[in-house]
């Protein structure tokens, strides 16, 4: 990063005046973009995939994670693995399929064959190599420096000295637990993937994903639609009981709140009719028996937008969505999203879950096009960053316990971002609860 970029403040924080500002150059500066790749995406734990995507021995998926090709697979013993998708011989990409099932991986260039564990099994012309060649570490496909999972969510990290995944996730583990506890049989990624792009800086989507402040205005058409199709908002928790925004540590954050839409897990709306009420009441009774009334109410009634630094969002709202996004340029990102659901849910519940998923969160739904347009307009507005330097994300900074529509969540992200890019100027973490 240039000396000039290093000496100009990226954020301004004044606790006495309850002020938190973000410099708009953070969204446009190519030096900052390059520093993010090195200091954040090369050093943090990054989401790879969900175990349900590779249910059988031999199943594999290939993914691009922070610019690297990764094979995410399940071996013959049922263990989940990750391999760097490159041949140790001459560097070719070994697996060229997006997904499948195989006992081994063969590089098409020179025919080297590797086991699911990455070990070299055979290669043409073996007699021309030393007898111990196949057993050498340098002859096998490499695993990422760090690989681990939590509740079937698997991550990689390219920093061999990084802290453990459990420590890294910090307070986010509790919210992953709440989401995963919707099901006794476990959660599963539903077949199908959404892929799209936005011409805006990736950090704008981070902010937007944990911003409860914009919903009423940006998504007004969706709330009008709900009013006309679900019989109004007086369903479940009234008002904003349970509304909170939290800093979960290490840049992770969550907003938890009630909302007017139905949740197939256990929150009925009149539009779902009597069959839906029977289904939802049964599920709610099961949750209550297992977890008690208070936790069951939280699982069923409250919504969560969970952000795991730097680029994973798990939306547990009218449906459960896993979303990742990667910067390709300072003003361009690619986004991938999947629907997550309880493995054992009924056909009725799955139908409404996927309808909710597509209706609001899909690229053609109510929310995503609105959000994409808003972020792209922000990026256009940053062309005036030289004259108008600062964004303000101070909302709720004067409260002991900010609500879900305050901006503590964004401050948690920016504090960690600043700590990693500009450690000498990093402010202290803000308290998020009374």
Task: Kindly describe this structure.
With 434 residues, the protein is an alpha+beta fold. It folds into two domains: 46-157, Rieske Iron-sulfur Protein (3-layer Sandwich); 174-425, Alpha-Beta Complex (Naphthalene 1,2-dioxygenase Alpha Subunit, Chain A, domain 1). The protein is built from twelve helices and 21 strands. The protein has helices spanning 3-7, 30-41, 165-169, 172-180, 202-209, 215-218, 220-229, 273-291, 293-301, 347-361, 367-381, 408-421, and strands spanning 11-14, 19-23, 46-50, 59-65, 68-74, 80-84, 99-101, 104-106, 113-115, 120-122, 146-150, 153-157, 187-189, 194-198, 244-249, 252-257, 303-308, 312-316, 320-329, 332-342, 390-392. Strands 13, 14, 15, 16, 17, 18, 19 and 20 form an eight-stranded antiparallel beta sheet that branches. It has a four-stranded antiparallel beta sheet with strand order 6-5-4-7, with no helix packed on it. Strand 8 and strand 9 (113-115) form a beta hairpin. Helix 8 packs across helix 9. It is globular and about 75 Å long. The chain starts with a helix and ends in a 13-residue tail after the last helix. 42% of the residues are buried.
Mean pLDDT: 90
Say which CATH homologous superfamily of the largest domain is assigned.
Naphthalene 1,2-dioxygenase Alpha Subunit, Chain A, domain 1
Distance between the termini: 39 Å
Number of domains in the coordinates?
A: 2
Helix content: 25-40%
What composes the largest sheet? 8 strands, antiparallel
Q: Which keywords apply here?
A:
disordered C terminus; Naphthalene 1,2-dioxygenase Alpha Subunit, Chain A, domain 1; single chain; Rieske Iron-sulfur Protein; 434 residues; alpha+beta; 8-stranded antiparallel sheet; 2 domains; 4-stranded antiparallel sheet; 29% helix
């Amino acid at each position: 990063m240039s000396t000039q970029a290093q000496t100009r403040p990226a954020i301004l924080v004044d606790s006495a005046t309850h002020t938190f500002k973000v410099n708009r150059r953070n969204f446009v500066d190519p030096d900052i973009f390059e520093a993010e790749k090195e200091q954040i995406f090369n050093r943090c734990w990054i989401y790879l995939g969900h175990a349900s995507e590779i249910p059988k021995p031999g199943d594999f998926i290939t993914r691009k994670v922070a610019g690297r090709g990764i094979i995410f697979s399940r071996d013959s013993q049922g263990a989940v693995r990750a391999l760097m998708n490159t041949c140790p011989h001459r560097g070719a990409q070994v697996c060229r399929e997006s997904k499948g099932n195989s006992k081994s991986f063969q590089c098409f260039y020179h025919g080297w064959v590797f086991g699911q564990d990455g070990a070299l099994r055979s290669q043409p012309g073996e007699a021309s190599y030393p007898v111990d060649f196949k057993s050498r570490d340098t002859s096998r496909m490499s695993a990422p420096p760090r690989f681990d999972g939590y509740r079937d969510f698997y991550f990689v990290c390219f920093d061999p000295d990084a802290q453990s995944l459990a420590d890294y996730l910090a307070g986010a583990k509790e919210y992953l637990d709440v989401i995963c506890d919707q099901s006794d049989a476990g959660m599963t990624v539903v077949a199908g993937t959404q892929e799209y792009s936005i011409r805006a800086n990736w950090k704008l989507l981070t902010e937007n994903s944990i911003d409860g402040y914009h919903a009423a205005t940006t998504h007004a058409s969706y709330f009008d639609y709900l009013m006309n199709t679900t019989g109004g908002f007086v369903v479940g928790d009234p008002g904003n009981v349970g509304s909170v925004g939290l800093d979960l540590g290490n840049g992770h954050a969550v907003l938890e709140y009630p909302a007017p839409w139905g949740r197939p897990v256990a929150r009925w709306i009149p539009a779902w009719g009597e069959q839906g009420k029977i289904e939802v009441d049964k599920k709610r009774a099961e949750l209550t028996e297992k977890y008690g009334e208070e936790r069951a109410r939280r699982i069923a009634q409250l919504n969560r937008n969970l952000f795991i630094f730097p680029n994973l969002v798990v939306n547990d709202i009218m449906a459960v969505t896993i979303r990742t996004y990667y910067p390709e340029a300072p003003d361009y990102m690619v986004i991938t999203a999947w629907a997550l659901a309880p493995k054992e849910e009924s056909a009725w519940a799955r139908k409404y879950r996927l309808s909710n998923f597509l209706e609001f969160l899909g690229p053609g739904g109510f929310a995503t096009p609105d959000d994409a347009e808003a972020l792209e307009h922000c990026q256009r507005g940053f062309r005036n960053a030289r004259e108008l330097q600062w964004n303000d994300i101070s909302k709720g900074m004067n409260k002991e316990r900010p609500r879900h529509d305050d901006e503590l969540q964004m401050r948690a992200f920016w504090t960690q971002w600043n700590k990693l890019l500009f450690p000498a100027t990093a402010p202290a973490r803000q308290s998020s609860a009374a």
